[in-house]
Amino acid sequence: MGPILGNEKLLDALFSSIRQNRLAGCYILEGAKGTGKRSIARFVAASLLCPNRNAKGEACLQCPSCRRVLAGNHIDVFELTPEEKGKRIPVSAVREMLRNSYVLPCEGDWRIFILCDSEAMKKEAQNALLKSIEEPRDQTVFFLLTADASRLLPTVRSRAVKFKTEPLPKDVIREALKENKPASEISEEAILLCGGSLGRALEILGDAEFHAARQVVLKYFEALFSGASFTKLCLIVSPAEWSRAKFSIILPMVKLALRDLICAHFGFDFSPEFFTNSAFLHDFAEIISPTEAIRLYEMTEALEGATEQNANLYAMLSTFHLRFQKLTQSLA
Ligand SMILES: [Zn+2]
């Protein structure tokens, strides 16, 4: 097994280009969070710079050069990420990165630019990059990593080779977890809910709060499904007992559950992010109309906003319970 799990076709194509000395100047790696975009870009960077490559052209991952690339601090590998999650990448950051690449001395024969969340680049930032992509210098390669390539400018997209990264299949994750964790600690729940990301699966396994919160949300949906009263719902999730911090874990989970219900209702081919019991998911999806699920999703978002401010949580949560409970009354 190579150093990167999954995405074999993509890696074959990239390494075949490296061996034939036909690497493009710019690649877009498009895929969901946790599908290995940055690991792939760093692995290619390490391979271009490693003095001990194997016959396939792959990095040794042991030498000082490889280790610096993997740690994100090799002088010839320029990585750019939004300063904070959800923030834009300003044009000044792109210009500075490009300027440094001209000024700083280099160690290896290659310069590799890795732009994480590249869709976060403002239009001017993408335009600033365009010239470097259009007329790339020799031995230079750009990796634009993104969850959604359609948010990059058409002019940028048309000058890049696009690859899609795929989530890891469940059995690959299961095997990889076995190498990292004792069998007693591995849960099917983590494998199902990690969205094909090994890193996320490991996070879920080690996260006691995640489990506690998930149990509460499951209990809430099960109570709804069995036609529980308003009072009972208030007992499961009550602002009197729950701190704002706890709500900030629970509410995103309610959103994941609702997202699952919406996808199941429309018959999308998707991997559930909350429900591990598909019979329960599909039964519930039949009861809740997509319009109502979307409305509840919006209410959950509003409630999330309210927990961050000092709004009246009690009133908001009561409305929420009532709305949910109204749905299940139609069951009786
Ligand atoms: Zn090496």
Mean pLDDT: 87
Helix tally equals 15
Low-confidence stretches: none
Enumerate the strands of the largest sheet in spatial order, edge to edge or round the barrel.
2-3-4-1-5
Query: Any idea of the CATH topology of the largest domain?
Result: Rossmann fold
**CATH hierarchy, class of the largest domain:** Alpha Beta
Oligomer category: single chain
Under the CATH scheme, the architecture of the largest domain is: 3-Layer(aba) Sandwich
Helix/strand/pairing category: alpha/beta
Instruction: State the distance separating the first and last CA atoms.
Output: 54 Å
What gross morphology would you assign? elongated
Evaluate the radius of gyration: 24 Å
Let me know the number of strands: 5
Describe the structure.
The protein is 54% helix and 8% strand. It has 332 residues and is of the alpha/beta class. The protein has two domains: 159 residues, P-loop containing nucleotide triphosphate hydrolases (Rossmann fold, 3-Layer(aba) Sandwich), CATH 3.40.50; 123 residues, Zinc Finger, Delta Prime, domain 3. The chain has a five-stranded parallel β-sheet, sandwiched between helices. It binds zinc ion.
List keywords for this structure.
15 helices, five-stranded parallel β-sheet, about 325 residues, Zinc Finger, Delta Prime, domain 3, 5 strands, about 10% strand, 2 domains, alpha/beta, binds zinc ion, about 55% helix, Rossmann fold
Question: Any chance you could write out the topology, listing elements then pairs?
Answer:
Blueprint: H1 8-19, E1 26-30, H2 37-49, H3 64-70, E2 77-80, H4 91-103, E3 111-115, H5 123-134, E4 140-146, H6 154-157, E5 161-164, H7 170-180, H8 188-193, H9 198-205, H10 208-225, H11 230-236, H12 244-265, H13 278-287, H14 290-308, H15 313-329
Parallel strand pairs: 1-4, 1-5, 2-3, 3-4
Helix pairs in contact: 2-3, 4-5, 10-12, 12-13, 12-14, 14-15
Bound molecules: zinc ion (ZN).
Zinc ion binds next to helix 3.
